[in-house]
Write a structure and sequence with these properties.
With about 375 residues, this protein is an alpha+beta fold. It has a domain at about 280-380: Aminopeptidase (3-Layer(aba) Sandwich). About 35% of the residues lie in helices and about 20% in strands. The strands form 4 sheets. A 5-stranded mixed β-sheet has the order 10-11-12-13-14, covered by helices on one side. A 4-stranded mixed β-sheet has the order 1-8-9-7. The mean pLDDT is about 95.
């Protein structure tokens, strides 16, 4: 059969629907259901307005508040933290298919020069003994120091050991105080009645669950969703999986061969027009994480420049994309000051001059006011040059 053709407008609507961004972000809130829908929520230390994980969840339902995530980890044990493409929160239901990822990360991290020189057996044993005896501990409960020249990413030996044991699944995040992570023995955090799956079944679940959440994609995009499988493993899965061959039209009119989930035609039939509300998305939002795919589908050229030297940045340190309906219409630079209770908009660009209207500016101000409430801020100030 000829591949199913998905035109660009439909592809955008599918993409936004799959990522919970096509609907108005209101109504009853189920935080765990949101995390399950997305598959993961990236954690990040940077707090320009709100940290990435809070902002991502708020973007799907603006009744979400920053205090609502930790109880799922600390008290209910309904989520766990580990490494996808980056440190993330995942539903605890995914733990059976995550066992090989613990092994993969243990091997990768253990072989790296960055970790290797710090992984002394005696220190590993001491860290495990203390946590076993004393209960959950954070890096602040240990006293080893960085030796030699201190560079930007330097970490004391105990922190390297804690992270290595966390990557390997021997320790788990028990809870957080603020953003400080507390580590405990995995068997005291993870449920011990989980089914045991072989590697082939884990790979199949990883690939299938990725495809269910993105709806369509190339094999590379399916692999990169979790970043928990190798290229040959995804290729082998695709040869036996129930997939629909599709061709997806890009914003420039070009077509890309891909695969889609088995119910793709039903998903297309159920589509509605994405909400016209203007949305301020986080730079780490899963819908825009793959910048190449973002540009292909939406014609939106976006780069995270926080690790680019200031003199070489085109836009700025932390730039928020603006989504309106089925298109990205601009980007902003804004910052929250929790001590002063203000959210300040310092730069605002639209993708074309014709998009720079008073009506759109009013929509942006309304959305910034809603975002300010997430961060506990009272006032939105426009300080444009």
């Amino acid at each position: 059969m000829a591949p199913l053709k998905i035109d660009n407008s439909t592809a955008r609507a599918l993409w936004l629907t799959s990522h919970g961004l096509a609907q108005t972000p209101t109504g009853p809130l189920d935080t765990l259901a949101l995390i399950k829908q997305l598959g993961f929520v990236q954690l990040d230390t940077i707090q320009v307005i709100a940290r990435a994980h809070h902002h991502i969840l708020w973007s799907r339902n603006q009744n979400y508040r920053e205090t609502m995530l930790d109880p799922l980890l600390r008290d209910k044990r309904q989520v766990f933290e580990h490494y996808t493409h980056d440190a993330s929160v995942l539903p605890m239901d995914f733990l059976p298919m995550w066992q090989r990822q613990f092994r993969r990360k243990k091997e990768q991290v253990g072989k790296s020069n960055w970790f290797g020189k710090h992984l002394h057996p005696d220190l590993i044993a001491e860290v495990l003994r203390r946590i076993a005896d004393e209960g959950p501990l954070s890096t602040h409960d240990f006293e080893t120091k960085v030796r030699g020249k201190k560079e930007m990413w330097s970490r004391p030996p105990h922190k390297m050991v804690l992270d290595y044991l966390w990557y390997s699944g021997e320790l788990a995040t028990c809870h957080r105080d603020g953003f400080t992570k507390y580590y405990d023995l995995a068997e005291r955090v993870f449920p011990q009645d989980q089914p045991t799956l072989g590697d082939t079944e884990q790979i199949a679940q990883l690939c299938q669950s990725a495809l269910e959440r993105i709806g369509f994609g190339t094999l590379g995009e399916i692999r990169r969703f979790w970043d928990a499988c190798a290229v040959p493993e995804v290729k082998a899965w695709s040869e036996t999986a129930d997939l629909v061959e599709v061709e997806v039209q890009g914003a420039d009119g070009s077509w890309t061969s891909a695969v889609a989930c088995a119910d793709i035609e039903a998903r297309i039939a159920a589509l509605t027009t994405p909400t016209a509300r203007l949305r301020v998305l986080n730079p780490f939002d899963p819908a825009i994480r793959d910048r190449v795919r973002l540009n292909r589908l939406f014609g939106f050229d976006y780069t995270v420049e926080m690790f680019v030297p200031a003199a070489k940045r085109k836009w700025g340190y932390y730039i928020f994309p603006l989504l309106e309906g089925g298109r990205f219409v601009g980007r902003i630079e804004a910052k929250g000051d929790r001590a002063k209770g203000t959210l300040t908009l310092s730069k605002y660009w639209t993708e074309s001059p014709r998009l720079n209207s008073e009506k759109r500016a009013a929509k942006l101000h309304a959305e910034l006011s809603r975002l300010a409430r997430l961060a506990g801020l009272d006032t939105v100030e426009w300080a444009l040059p």
